[in-house]
Amino acid sequence: MKKKIVIILTMLIGLTMLSADFKEDYNNMSKAYQGKDYLNTIKYGEQCLPEVDKLPKKNQLDLLFKLANSFLISKKELLKGVDYATQLVDKAKKFKEEENTPKYDKNFIVPGLKIKLFCYKGASKNDISLLNKAAETGIELLNYDKKRNSVNLIVSIAYTMHKEKMIGEAIDIMENICNMEDLKISPKYMNMLAGWYNNDKKNKEKAIEWFKKSYNIKKSPKIALNLGQLLYKTNIDEGIKYCAESYVLRGENKLTKAYKTLEHLVCNVKLKGKNKEEQDNALQNIISKAKANVQ
Predict the structure, then answer these.
(1) DSSP string of 181-226?
(2) Sign of the C-alpha dihedral, residues 187, 163, 170, 89?
(3) Structurally, how many domains does the chain consist of?
(4) Given a cut of 90, is residue 1 above it in pLDDT?
(5) Is the distance from CB of 67 to CB of 42 less than 8 angstroms?
(6) How far apart are CA 146 and CA 114, in angstroms?
(7) Global confidence as pTM
(8) Nearest-CA neighbor of 95 among 107, 81, 80?
(9) Helix, strand, or coil here: 6?
(10) pLDDT grade, residue 140 (50/70/90)?
(11) Would 199 be classed as within a structural domain?
(12) What distances in angstroms separate CA 46 from CA 11, 25, 39, 92, 105, one per listed residue?
C-alpha cells in the first residue's frame, strides 16, 4: 500500500513540473492518436519530447509508442519510426532492469520491435539492404515473443530476401530460426531451407540434413522422395529406404514416381544382373520394412 502511495505521489509531483504548453501538446497528441490523425500525433508528440522524461514511466513509453506507430501507419519518414521504436525499446529495457519485472516485454518491447521491423521492411523498398536490419530486429523479437505469428513474420522477411537474390542472408536467417530449440518450427520451413541449400547453394549435405530433420517431425511422401533422390548416389541402401517409404506414404500406387524410382534402384542398380525372382523378393522385403518404419 505504501509503495502505491509513493508511486502516485511521484506521478503527481512529475505532472506539476510540466509546462502548460507541454500539457496542451500532450493532450492534443493523445486526442489526435485516438482519432487516427497520425500527422498531428507526430506534430504534437515531437513537441512534447523536450519534457518527456518528466512524465511517469508508462506515459514516456506510451508517447514514444504513439510516435513510432504514427510514422509506420502514415508511411511518413519510416526511418524516423525506426528511431522512435528504438528509443521505446531501449527505454523499456532500462525500466525493466530497474524494476526487475517482465511486464515491459509484452506491453512495450515486443510492440516496439514489431514497429521497428515493419518500418525497416517498408523502407527497404528504397534501400533493399535494410531487409538485413529488419531480419536482425526479427531475431531479437523472437527472444521476447515466440508465438507463431512472430516466427511467420521473420520467415516472410527471409523469403523476401531470397526473392531479392539475397540468398546467403536468407539462408542464414532461416537456419538461425530453425536452430532455435525453444521454437516449434514448422517442417515446411525446414523444407524451404533444405530446398534453398539444394537449389541455390548446390549443397546436398545441408539439404539432406534439413530434409531429414523435417521428415523426422512429419513423415511426408514428397520429402521422402527428395531424400531418396539425394542419397542414392552416395548411399544406395538409404536412397532405396526413403523411396520405399515415399511409395508406402503415397498409398502404394505403382504409377507414382516413388515406385518407379524404387524399382529402378533395386532392379537396375543394386541388384542389376540378378534374376527377376530375387529382385521381386528384395523389393517386397524393402516395402515391408518401409511400412513398419512409417507406422
Answers:
(1) TTS---HHHHHHHHHHHHHTS--HHHHHHHHHHHHHHS--HHHHHH
(2) negative
(3) 1
(4) no
(5) yes
(6) 13
(7) 0.85
(8) 107
(9) helix
(10) very high
(11) no
(12) 21, 9, 11, 19, 24
Task: Give me the mean pLDDT over the 232-259 stretch.
Answer: 97
CB 109 within 8 A of CB 93: yes
- DSSP for 32-81 reads HHHTT-HHHHHHHHHHHGGGGGGS-HHHHHHHHHHHHHHHHHHTSSHHHH
Q: Which residue type does 165 have? A: K
Query: CB-based burial of residue 227 (10 Å sphere; 0-12 exposed, 13-18 middle, 19+ buried)?
Result: buried
Three-class HEC string of 243-295: HHHHHHHCCCCCCCHHHHHHHHHHHHHHCCCCCHHHHHHHHHHHHHHHHHHHC
Q: Which domain holds residue 232?
A: 223-295
Cell numbers representing residue 293 in the block: 518404419
Say which amino acid occupies 35: G
Give the Cα separation of 215 and 191 in Å (integer).
Answer: 9
Alpha-carbon distances, residue 157 vs 46, 50, 66 (angstroms): 30, 36, 24
